[in-house]
Amino acid sequence: MKLGCDIARTRAVEEGTGEQWFLTPFSIHVHTNLAAGRWQTLPLMEQLANVGSDVARAHRWQGKDAALSEKAFIRALELLDLTIGDARWKGRRKELTRMREFLCDAMDGGLAYGSDLASLNRYFLHFAIAARAGH
Length: 135
Description:
By secondary structure, the protein is mostly helical. The chain has one domain. 53% of the residues lie in helices and 6% in strands. The protein has helices spanning 32-35, 44-61, 66-84, 93-107, 117-132; strands at residues 12-15, 18-21. A two-stranded antiparallel ribbon has the order 1-2. A hairpin with a 2-residue loop joins strand 1 (12-15) and strand 2 (18-21). Helix 2 (44-61) packs antiparallel against helix 5 and helix 3 runs antiparallel to helix 4 (93-107). The N and C termini lie far apart (35 Å).
C-alpha cells in the first residue's frame, strides 16, 4: 500500500520568502479545524499524541477492516505533515520526517525498515502519556 508515501518525495524547499513544506497528496485536510491554524497552537507533545491516536486506530483496524485502517493512516499522515510544517519545530524536521518514513514503512508492510504499527503505537503512547501529564 503506497498511499502517497514515497518517502523521498516529501521534502522541504525554499520558495519565496520562507520555507514551505510540501504535504502529502492527502493534504485535503480531513482535520480542517486543525489545518486552519489551531494545530500550530498545540505543544509538540500534544501534536504527537494526536498523531498517535490515529496510528492506534490504524493498528486496531489493521487486518480487520482495511478501509478503516487506511483512513486512520491518512489522518495520521496529515497530522504528522501539519507537525512537520509547524515552523516551531524546524530544528526537529529530520526526526519528524524519519518518524513519517517509519509510519509509511509500517503501512507498506515494513519492507524498508521492518516497521510495524504495533511498535509505532507503543512509541506514540509515550507522547500521549506525557501530554496528559502536562509536559
